[in-house]
Amino acid sequence: MVATLMTKEIPNEDLLIDLFPDPYGDSSAFVLTWYKFALTINGHEIYGGLQACGDVSQQVHLDSSKATLTELRCALFFKHDSELPQTCIKH
Questions:
Q1: Buried b (16+ CB within 10 A) or exposed e, 48-58
Q2: 50-62 and 69-83 helices, crossing angle to 10°
Q3: What stretches of the chain show up as alpha helix (H) in DSSP?
Q4: Where does residue 70 rank: exposed (0-12), middle (13-18), buried (19+ CB within 10 A)?
Q5: How far, CA to CA in Å, does 58 sit from each of 9, 14, 77, 82, 86?
Q6: pLDDT, tens digit (0-9, with 9 covering 90-100), for 39-75
Q7: Which sequence spans correspond to the domains of the chain?
């Protein structure tokens, strides 16, 4: 059985603090909540493909203090995209 996460993309200007997952939330739903939030942006579309999104993600991980909100969100998207077992959840 394949679970599907249906998450709507949300531009930065429409983000509300309530949409951000609680970093101290219930551990049973913690990972799924962050994966769903990661899907509110499509880093591949924003940066023009997998390689460019990966490059942005790597830069964010090297120094997140200088990253924009879009770069931070794309790094989260890229992490989701590269780590989530595609056989379990497809987007």
A1: eeeeebbebbe
A2: 110
A3: 27-38, 43-47, 50-62, 69-83
A4: middle
A5: 22, 26, 12, 13, 21
A6: 999 999 999 999 999 999 999 999 999 999 999 999 9
A7: 37-91
Can you give the C-alpha Rg of the chain in angstroms?
A: 13
Tokens of 7: 């998450």
- Amino acid identity of residue 49, one-letter, is G
Tokens for 5, please give them: 């996460």
Torsion of CA 3, 61, 65, 34, to 10 degrees: 10
pTM for this prediction = 0.78
90 token code pair: 């497809």
Q: Let me know: does 35 contact 84? Beta carbons within 8 Å.
A: yes
